Amino acid sequence: MLTVREIAEQTEKIAPPSMALPDDPIGLQVGNMEWQVRRLMLALDASPDTVGQAVSSGVDMLLTHHPLFYKPIRNLDLDTVFGHAVAMAIEKRIAVYSAHTNLDAAPRGINRALAEMLTLRNVQAFGSTEPSRVKLVTFVPAEALERVRQAIFNLGHGTIGSYSRCSFTTIGEGTFLGSEGTNPVAGKAGRLEKVREVRLEIIIEESDIESTMDALGEAHPYEEPAVDFYPLFPQKGKNGLGLVGDLDSEVVLDDLAETLREKLGISAVRLVGNKGTIIRRVALCAGSGASLMEEALVRGSDLFITGDVRYHDARRVQETGLSLLDIGHFAPERYGMECFGKLLDGALRDLGKAVEILYAVEENPFTTLTAQPRRIRGEQE
Question: Per the CATH hierarchy, to which homologous superfamily does domain 2-101+332-359 belong?
């Protein structure tokens, strides 16, 4: 029989945790990794209703897209609707696990499912989920090189892909002239000095600059070390929250919107741009992807597909000439979860440990109201 851990491992092969945004609370939300699982339920949200469905269906594990604890909580009142749902999951030994932005960005994740629906070609990722990184460059006397390098490595820096403790050095000549009151390690104050130095380069995360400077300052022999930071761009097409690709053939925007509406089973889509615009290249991001609009434009897209677009974002897109389709948050991610379920089922069957997979019955919290013709006074029904 499968355990929560085994299902989590297969999930993470499809959607590696390293692809999640840094502060995304993915993974096990409630339960124990060693609990056994006979029946698994997939859902978009770990809502009280969804947890209730899991209980009534005899489910052992609830695997959701949106995390149960998306923001830190100060307390857990079991008398609230949310607290009762958590208590119910624990009481019934239902493990709750979430794969969020890692599933969005995964090579076979939610955005890929949408790209395949549109049969996009030459697909590349954008909107990297990797932490912002910088290249630290400092200049060190040769005899102090290893001390300074190890101080930075000890903070966990110098990682490139699957390789750690990566650095680069070049030998050169440094010059300096210390003013009155300085105490240079080499030479004397008031005299121009020339020193054999080593240029040391190591990649670090931008958020760690302050702590790295503290460690470097303690290890470096100079009173005022020269330190530079160079911003690094994510590797193009490696992974990201958005995808961009080319359609098999050009299509009119209005027709593409109708195709998406029908395939996703939604009553309406919101469109920014001219309905008759010819679309050849499409960028997309399921969920709330408005922050990626500028990058979608830079990637040469004719159309950006996403959800939860605000008024001012729509105005901004309109001014750039980029067309936009807002297909909502619920439908594309729900579709993506169903596609993920098929992948997970196949992976578990390959292990010879298939589990029954159920899908929670969920509805879009929004209802679209359309205008109805007004009845003329006195008109018979």
Answer: NIF3 (NGG1p interacting factor 3)-like (3.40.1390.30)
pLDDT in tens, 235-251: 655 678 999 999 999 99
Secondary element (H or E) of residue 52? helix 48-56
Beta bridge partners of 240: none
pLDDT of residue 129: 75
| Cα distance between residue 355 and residue 214, in whole Å | 51
Q: Are strands 303-307 and 323-326 parallel, antiparallel or unpaired?
A: parallel
Global pTM value: 0.77
SS3 (DSSP) at 331:
helix
The amino acid that residue 156 corresponds to is: G
Residue 1: predicted pLDDT = 85
Helix (H, G, I), strand (E, B) or coil at 70: coil
Are 155 and 215 in contact, with CB atoms under 8 Å apart?
yes
Q: 330 in helix, strand or coil?
A: helix
377 pLDDT exceeds 80?
no
d(CA 331, CA 368): 13
Q: pLDDT digit string (tens) for 197-233?
A: 999 999 999 989 999 999 999 999 999 999 999 998 7
CA atoms within 13 A on the CB side of 282: 30
Straight-line distance from the first to the last Cα atom of the chain, in angstroms, rounded to the nearest whole number:
62
Domain 107-128+239-327 classified CATH 3.90.660.10? Answer: no
Q: Is the predicted pLDDT of residue 381 greater than 60, yes or no?
A: no
Q: Where in the chain is the domain with CATH 3.40.1390.30?
A: 2-101+332-359, 107-128+239-327
